Amino acid sequence: MTAAAENVEAREAERTDPGERGRLRISRTVLRKIAEHAADQDPGSARTRRRIAGVGLGEHGASAQLSGPDDALRVRLDVALRYPAPVRETVASVRKRVGAELRRIADFRVRAIDVTVSALVPADPPARVE
Fold first, then answer.
1. Which of 13, 67, 83, 98 could form a disulfide with 120 if both were Cys (CB 3.0 to 4.6 A apart)?
2. Mind listing the domains of the chain with CATH numbers?
3. How confident is the prediction for the chain on average, in pLDDT?
4. Within 13 Å and on the Cβ side, how many CA atoms surround 104?
5. Is the pTM of this model over 0.70?
């Protein structure tokens, strides 16, 4: 094939509608990470310390599990919330944020978001001035 013919094919490929060029498949791992990140970004959520047998292993945020077909995704979240805060309103905010982010970033429709509150973390005390 000549260089001129390759250039013509390349230009035609650029003009082809993106939907006709191929398929995009987003891994469930990516969707799970989007959900976890969105839950962690909510102002009412908190990170907790991870400990096993008294040994500190750092901090972790929300964890998610996904199930169901791509057009009706079901998300199960396990989150820690800041205390004191209205739990019902905070969970509603987390649900809304996670659903919106999955729709915005990956164009996935979420059928249900089940939230388990695994911990209530006290808010940081204000700094003392002496």
1. 83
2. 23-122 (3.30.70.1350)
3. 84
4. 9
5. yes
